[in-house]
Specification:
By secondary structure, the chain is of the alpha+beta class. Helix content is about 30%, strand content about 25%.
Length: about 150
Amino acid sequence: MKVRTYKAKTKWLKGFKAETEIREFKIGIDEPLELRGTNTAPNPVELLLTALGGCIALSYQSYAKRFEVDIEDLIVSLEGDMIPGGWVDERGKKRRGFKQIRYEVQIKTKATEEKVFQLHKMVEETCPVSDMLVNQTEIKGSVSVNY
């Protein structure tokens, strides 16, 4: 099986601002004023919602023809709840991330509801970002110090 490696490089700029380079794109990262940022860009958890919404939207497009759904317009609205200071999950583990993420897909199409629901089920089963959030993904970090 061939593995595709995705790459990103994030550089801290100042305060609570950073910038990530992905291929030829640059994405700003900042915190809102109430979290000591300067509110010039989305924060990391908002970017996670962005990644999930983008994955859902593009997955809909990827599988639409299979279910005979002609998408005229599609909007994915997302929201996630975080508890300041963290929360304890059902296994007693303290978590600092989202407690829940909810999304709603609004689709404009002439396809039947049955076909749209079949498409939605396929998207839920195949969206890679959703899979990474629902299932444990191993994260390995390291640090190098430059003097």
